[in-house]
Design goal:
Strand content: 15-25%
Order of helices and strands: EEEHEHHHE
Structural class: alpha+beta
Largest sheet: 3 strands, antiparallel
Number of strands: 5
Oligomer: single chain
Strand order of the largest sheet: 2-3-4
Length: 92
């Protein structure tokens, strides 16, 4: 899964936002605010990483020590990926 062409992440006033450009802007109006975790997920997908690879990155960054911690991170990653897919940001 990857981010569809035309969606970019930018830092605006210290916050991360996703905006549509080009053809994508004809279908999506507005912007999406992301926190640091959302930014990491977005950038991971943009780089072609799998959900498991993104979970590994987040677990390392957060200092997740238990399988329970990792399960919470994995659930959050899957939830965001589903929301992104439902919103039309992703392509196979």
């Amino acid at each position: 899964m990857k981010i569809k062409e035309g969606f970019v992440i930018r830092r605006v006033a210290g916050k991360y936002v996703v905006v549509a450009t080009g053809q994508a802007s004809r279908e999506f109006h507005g912007m999406v605010k992301l926190n640091e975790t959302g930014k990491t997920i977005w950038e991971g997908l943009s780089a072609g990483r799998t959900a498991d690879e993104i979970v590994d990155m987040l677990a390392e960054n957060c200092g997740a020590e238990t399988e329970e911690d990792r399960a919470y991170i994995a659930a959050d990653v899957q939830s965001m990926i589903k929301e992104m897919s439902d919103a039309g940001f992703l392509t196979e």
